[in-house]
Amino acid sequence: MTLQSELRNETPSKLSVRNVSKRFRSGARVTQALGDVSLDVGEGEFVCLVGPSGCGKSTLLNIIAGFEEADSGTVLTDGQPITGPGRDRMVMFQEPALFPWLDVLDNVLFGLKLKPGLTPAERLEVARFYLQLVGLEKFAKAYIHELSGGMKQRVTLARALAPNPRVLLMDEPFAALDALSREQLYGDLQRIWAERRKTIVFVTHNVREAACLGDRVLLFSPNPGRIREQFTVDLPRPRDINSVSLATHATEIMRALKSHDATAAQEVAE
Amino acid sequence: MKRSLGAILFFVVAVAAWEAACRARLWSPVLVPSPDSVAQYLWASLLDGTLLSAAAVTMKRLLLGYAFGIALGLPLGLLTARFKLLNDTLGLIALGLQTLPSVCWVPLALLWFGQTESAMFFVVVMGTLWSVIIATDNGVRNVPPIFSRAARTMGSKGLHTWLHVMLPASLPFVVSGMKQGWAFAWRSLMAAEIYVTILSGFGLGHLLHYGRELNAMEQVIAIMLVIIGIGLLADKVLFSPWERYLHRRWGTARN
Questions:
Q1: How is chain B split into domains, by residue range?
Q2: pLDDT, position B248
Q3: What CATH number is given for A3-269 in this structure?
Q4: Taking CB atoms and an 8 Å cutoff, what residues of chain B touch A115?
Q5: Looking at beta carbons, which residues of chain B come within 8 Å of A106?
Q6: Cβ–Cβ of B146/A146 closer than 8 Å?
Q7: pLDDT 10s digit of each residue in chain A, 270 long?
Q8: Rounded to 5 degrees, what are φ and ψ at A204?
Q9: ipTM reported for the complex, 2 dp
Q10: B35-250: CATH number
């Protein structure tokens, strides 16, 4: 494998989720986290999963990531069923999950060292390439605790991108950040997504964030977790979270979310 | 610089006050020897080699047993954290034995091994082992689960995850466990050396013991000072660099 081929964009994957259900048991209570969910994500598509907490959106992400197994149904990447976590599908969590005993560069190198076929010098070059992509090449030797929350998530993004995955799974990665860092990261993520062509599944409870980032926004509702409605956001990119047209889309999604919530409350009452 | 100057001044004044009190005959010199006589003993025993050879014997016993205790305790701690059955069995034993003051191993060691180096080795290992097991186990349990998840998506599994994620992530706990193990081992070795004579080598504990037998208070005080010095040195040389490293990396330093 050469450096050029390593840095070349991988073809993003096509994801298909087929009739996936998942139940959690805690004591005598059984929660239907996912009830018969099916969904397709196209190659290089950016899909946002939105819904109230407990609607199963994170569970679905964990199943796609291979951390959890579905009770029934299958998840396919390019037609192949998922058997466990793999570096073709990298995950970004709400907490940075960076390793404090390694500096920034070594954190990015962690996944690269596990990828066969690269010389140490090539790995270093790849890691530096991605640090530059997220704008942190000056912080290669910094310790993790010296970084701000936003910088930490940038390093996490670089670390997730470094092994050149075909799918990026993001579980509320910006939820714990301040508004300013978040807005910067919206811009960066859109730029990087355009440059590196990944299929992205992005979980959030922030409707506006979903409208800003997603080609499509899927609305989840709980008990059992399922997809209630989907919205296509066809605004030009890069999108500005504060733009009026985006707000219009977000309002529409928010209205749908509230109406489902009201129906759900009514169902429970009956 | 100013700080160390202050510290030096403090000790100079303290020793001078001690010397002055002795010269003023405030106490019987049999009970409280003067710093001068303590220094004289130290100098003489340094010149005739008794002090260095005793220190060497003690340090060799300590380091051998300590290294072995860590080499055994680290993997066992990882195992008790990993396997439920081992945690329910070995983990419980470790917890129980850690509460046992390690001096209590001395009678058993003497009956098993006689007055030999093996008995000393055994006592030191017992002092070290249980703290290290418990600290390692505890450290691994405190590793955020998100670390191993992140590692798994990057293709790490099995032994690689344990060596490259779980072990370094639990280092803060492991190091404090090693420090505690060191303290236990050091105390139990001193007790053992005072308690029994091992013919294959006279350690610092023996010198302390003979100081009492000979009613030589300056020897008792001098050896106590040496033992304190070794303890301080171990802390500064063995553990401080680790702790500084951890503070720097984890960002827990005060300044």
A1: 35-250
A2: 87
A3: 3.40.50.300
A4: 155
A5: none
A6: no
A7: 567 777 877 778 889 999 999 998 888 888 888 989 999 999 999 999 998 888 889 999 999 999 999 999 999 998 899 988 988 899 999 888 999 999 999 999 999 999 888 899 999 999 999 999 999 999 999 999 999 999 999 999 999 999 999 999 999 999 989 999 999 999 999 999 998 889 999 999 899 999 999 999 999 988 888 899 999 999 998 899 999 999 999 999 999 988 877 776 666 555
A8: -155, 160
A9: 0.86
A10: 1.10.3720.10
Q: How far does Cα B111 stand from its chain's mean position? A: 24
DSSP string of B155-221, one letter each residue: T--HHHHIIIIIHHHTHHHHHHHHHHHHHHHHHHHHHHHHH---TT---HHHHHHHHHHTT-HHHHH
Structure tokens given for B148 = 């191993």
| Residue B197 near residue B206 (C-beta atoms within 8 A) | yes
Q: How far is CA B99 from CA A160, B74, B92, in A?
A: 45, 19, 11
Chain-chain contact of B144 with A163 (C-beta, under 8 angstroms): no
End-to-end CA distance of chain A: 62
Whole-angstrom CA distances from A141 to A13, A44, B231 are 33, 32, 35
Phi, psi (rounded to 5 degrees) for B39: -65, -40
Q: Where would I find the beta strands (DSSP E) of chain B?
A: none
Q: Is A43 left (phi over 0), alpha (psi -120 to 50) or beta?
A: beta
Query: What residues pair up with A41 in beta bridges, in sequence order?
Result: A15
* Yes or no, beta carbons of B146 and A163 under 8 Å apart: no
Kindly give, in sequence order, each residue whose CB lies less than 8 Å from that of residue B191, ignoring residues fewer than 6 positions away. Answer: B103, B106, B205
Q: Extract the tokens encoding B38.
A: 């303590």
What end-to-end distance do the CA atoms of chain B give, in Å? Answer: 17
The structure tokens listed for A174 are 């910006």
Main-chain dihedrals φ then ψ at residue A19, nearest 5 degrees: 50, 50
Quick check: A99 and B147 CB within 8 A? yes
